[in-house]
Amino acid sequence: MYPAQFDYHTPSSIQEAISLLTRLKDDAKLLAGGHSLVPMMKLRLAQPKHLIDLRKVPGLSGIKEQGGAIAIGALTTHYQVESSALLKQKCPILPETAAQIGDPQVRNMGTIGGSVAHADPAADYPAAVVALGAELVAEGPKGRRAIKADDFFKGLLTTAIQPDEILVEIRFPSWPAGTGMSYMKFPHPASRFAVVGVAAVVTVDGKGACSKAGVGITGAGTKAVRAKGVEAALAGKTLDAATIQAAAEKAADGVDVQDDPLQGSVEYKTHLLKVYCRRALEAALARAKK
Amino acid sequence: MAGKVLLTLNVNGEQYEVAVPVHKTLLEVLREDMGLIGTKHGCELGECGTCTLLVDGRPVLSCLALPIELQGCDIVTVEGMASGGRLHPLQQAFAELGAAQCGYCTPGILLSAQALLAEVPKPTRQQIRAALAGNLCRCTGYTKILDAVELAALRTDGAADVAEATR
């Protein structure tokens, strides 16, 4: 099975990639790991006349610490995230999330930037991106700008990235001492995509009260969202079982849960969201107390 | 640019020059232009793992890879597993235990398992399952496949013994 014919471009700098994108406009698609784009091209759901391969662009891959925050290049593979000693220590929810994506073959080629920019509603990373309060760095003809996670996911397969921009980096802010984090998903048994996925990040102060919380939801709706109701129900509270249960009950508030014959009904996914939210909060809390 | 591009690919330790349309996947170039038909067509969409091969030692789906991106990489297909007429210990174990029925998924599974054993010489059952999670088999029920990987791991105790076993 072949994709339709295309012209193939390998820019050697981000500026060259942006000028290609600016010139070719809607006829071009950016290629990272290709594990969402190439299947769509083979099915002829996408027939770009030009492919701009970002893999030879230097500086787009890698994980580094900058002033306490973590910066991950867009072309960093899921395997690199999954196996990063730095992330396991500083931001363990990211390796935990990456390890749950697809299968080893997918994780060896798929990239964090490709996944986030593609914005598949059942992708895993977006939940953690929202929960941690990440910034998505896009570069275009006018330079770089940082987009807050809450403003990034616009809808089904749609983000705030403009047609002449490229997602180059994702920055994850550091969270205070006393923070625990966990990503819990119910994977579709065949595809391993998230039927629902919940990323929970909680900080507890010296008295055991929740001083900060971030909860991101993926899978159930058309885009990843922040579970504001859950966060509000945790704020300032001592996180006992009843408080966590009550907060998790709000997991589907504000989520446009979709009915899907292959992924489940609205009622089913709403129930899963509450259960997985409770489990993610419990795991995050246990880690925060360590 | 509907014409062909000239690519240099390093497959099983040999350099190949092929002139192919840029939109052909690595799977198709291996099978149709290089005569290496050990790598199998499966779902074509990155789900079944049948087309798995190794790129720089890691399992990759050849049905989703464009060969033009993999110039300069070390590509290993199932044809590259046997050495000097001797089967790889994994191939030997699969044959002895009957870890294949129709055999169509076997090349991909062998290569995923080879990558695992290179990284984790004595994997647990759970580690084998995780490493083979991307390779579907519709015949065996997997039990004999897991047994065969365990047997191969048991027989290969470090690099020296692999050399011994394949001499």
In words, what does this structure look like?
The complex is a heterodimer of chains A (290) and B (167). In chain A, 33% of the residues lie in helices and 26% in strands. Chain A is of the alpha+beta class. Chain A has 3 domains: 7-52, Uridine Diphospho-n-acetylenolpyruvylglucosamine Reductase, domain 2 (2-Layer Sandwich); 63-172, Uridine Diphospho-n-acetylenolpyruvylglucosamine Reductase, domain 3; 179-288, 2-Layer Sandwich (Enolase-like, domain 1). A 5-stranded antiparallel β-sheet of chain A has the order 4-5-10-6-7. Chain A has a 4-stranded antiparallel β-sheet with strand order 11-12-13-14, with helices on both faces. The termini of chain A are far apart. By secondary structure, chain B is of the alpha+beta class. Chain B is built from 6 helices and 5 strands. In chain B, helix 2 crosses helix 5. Chain B is globular and about 50 Å long. Chain A binds chain B through residues 1-8, 34-35, 38-39, 42-43, 53, 55, 79, 102-106, 108-109, 190-191, and chain B through 1-2, 5, 21-25, 28, 44-47, 49, 52, 55, 58-61, 63-66, 68-69, 112, 115, 130-131, 133-135.
